[in-house]
Amino acid sequence: MANSIRQRLADAALSRLLRQGPAANDYVLATARTPMRDGVVLVGDHYAPVTARPRGTVLMRSPYGRGFPASALNGRLFAARGYHVIIQSVRGTFGSGGRFVPMAQEAEDGLDTVAWLREQPWFDGRLATLGASYLAWSQWAMMQDPPPELRAAVVYVGPHDFREAVYGTGAFTLGDFLGWSDLIAHQEDGGLLRRALNDASARRRLRPALEGLPLAEAADPVLRGRAPWYREWLAHPDGDDPWWQPYRAGAALDRVDTPVLIISGWQDLFVDQSLRQYEALRARNVEVGLTVGPWTHLTVGLQGAMTMARESLAWLDQHMAEGPAARKSPVRVFRTGERRWHELASWPPPSAPAIFQLHADRTLTLAAGPARGGDPSRPDALDGSVVSAGEATGETVRFRYDPADPTPTVGGRTLTGSMGVKDNRALEARADVLTFTTDPLPTAVDVIGAPVLELAVSVEPEHADVFVRLCDVDKRGHSRNFADGMRRLDPSVPAGRTQRLTLTLDPCFHRLAAGHRLRVQVSGGSFPRFARNVGSAADAHELRPRDHTVHCAQSRLVLPVAAPN
């Protein structure tokens, strides 16, 4: 189907909005039906450029449909610049055959789609993959066995290990993945207006499922049998369970040699995995570009749309069409607190550990000595160790966590409610949140990489969680988060016995301005981002409060800061 004048005008307006040059060619849109090895047929949209010199094929595989925004930001934009674009609906979604099972079929179905591409007369042997979130996962799944035609990959805000995203803290990431399951379960209900109303009412509709117990039964009235995987996730909390193997595509990081562009946001729930992807590929000398902006998982496609379009097209042009170098430097990152982009040769840049001690008077002071154990580069050496009787001495401070009135989620790397950077003052006023704060900083401090909190804590009873956060407190007292960490404690440690934890917090690139203060929060959870720890082994109706004691003399923050020039 050829473009109408109206569509051409819309495409031109989008190009101007994204600060792209004018279209190089027209394109036509057709339906692509692709058979899989088991006979299931997947449906896709083929945006075919009308040009004698096409630039190759871009493959996107999605469970979210083939309409806006992918149709405009990727399909039409790229096709108008010489690329064949296939936007394919994965199994069981938007007209494709089969049953949707998250992640399970994406490796095989991706390779079967490439096999089909080889048979198409317009396919010239040059292939790229592209997409965000689940579309990023589908790329990593296929890159476990990368096809020889693959010339480039563009990965936005996406994981390679989905189990890590669901249970990496030891607690179930409730709000994000109940919400995602609800989205998939209802995304094809009615027309566009109905779907918009469903999205707008999600927070209200999901509240009984978030607050109810047991979690699986509480979600049944909302999911209505359309997301059977949700119950299965809850039934498999063990990280060593082979059931999770289809959800893990880390092998791709050891096998792919294709140039990969990774785009993420400091408040994206997958940013830790994005940085691990970059580091693993760079260690193998794979050409890799990294861009991290001030975005959440959802705002990367809005606030970051211009950056994504510009950098993606430049990456494809370089590696698919022998265009000029796509980037000034391999790494481009936005420093929060300073609100400025930086070009770097690699991530992370050099840093040195600044060590801060926690005190019972709620202060946080710069310590004179190195990190505990003498090696700041290895603060995980004592993770999970148990302190012998009498060893945990000195200052202590306590709080009580009550799952009947759980510490609420305020911002952070989540899809739940108000995500991203938020003012934490109301949260910090709660009795179940401890804060430890420095004096005003005499000079600016640049935090680079993943801070580590070494925390000595005892709990009664033994089933408990610890949630920690770093905040930047400005001169007016506004306290804004920039890094979090969460851990479900080992319930085999007897109640009251002190545990030494090493909590690696979110990676960050943040400037604490002169006159600002650094604050550490310690609490017993973040609900509904993470499922409440009800205080017992069972996911039961009984909610048991528990007391947390922080042993300050054995607790300190190791902050990676910019190395001296």
UniProtKB/TrEMBL annotation:
It holds the Pfam family Peptidase_S15. The keyword Hydrolase applies. This is Putative CocE/NonD family hydrolase. It comes from Paractinoplanes abujensis. The keyword Transport does not apply. GO terms for molecular function: dipeptidyl-peptidase activity. Keywords: Hydrolase. Residues 313-558 form the Xaa-Pro dipeptidyl-peptidase C-terminal domain. InterPro entries: AB_hydrolase_fold (IPR029058), CocE/Ser_esterase (IPR005674), Galactose-bd-like_sf (IPR008979), Xaa-Pro-like_dom (IPR000383), Xaa-Pro_dipept_C (IPR013736).
